Amino acid sequence: MSTRRSKFQLSVEVLNQIKQGENKPTRIMYSANLSWKSLKEILHSLTTQDLIEEIIVSRSSKRAKKRYQITAKGENVLQYYSMVSGLIEIEPRD
């Protein structure tokens, strides 16, 4: 049985993918195994909290091409999450 990921876990996963070099929205979506709607909500949340930065690469007649990069604040969140998750050991349910 699979367990559902919390919004916090999804946000951390998106931060990890961006840190590892995935900067295009579609690639982030696939690598984090998310739906487009969920990804848009998470990217908006992370951007408003200054954990990632949205960069407009070019504007075509229809839409702007966006790329994302992690900020120093986002790096700190990942570092603290790594420290805390190392302290807590969660055992699977039977």
Summary?
The protein has 94 residues and is an alpha+beta fold. Helices cover 53% and strands 16% of the residues.
Q: What do these coordinates show?
A:
- The structure is a single chain.
- With 94 residues, the protein is α+β, with helices and mostly antiparallel strands.
- It has a single domain, classed as Orthogonal Bundle (Arc Repressor Mutant, subunit A).
- 53% of the residues lie in helices and 16% in strands.
- It has helices spanning 7-19, 25-32, 36-48, 72-87; strands at 52-59, 64-70.
- It has a two-stranded antiparallel ribbon.
- Helix 1 (7-19) crosses helix 2, helix 1 (7-19) crosses helix 3 and helix 1 packs across helix 4 (72-87).
- The longest helix has 16 residues, at 72-87.
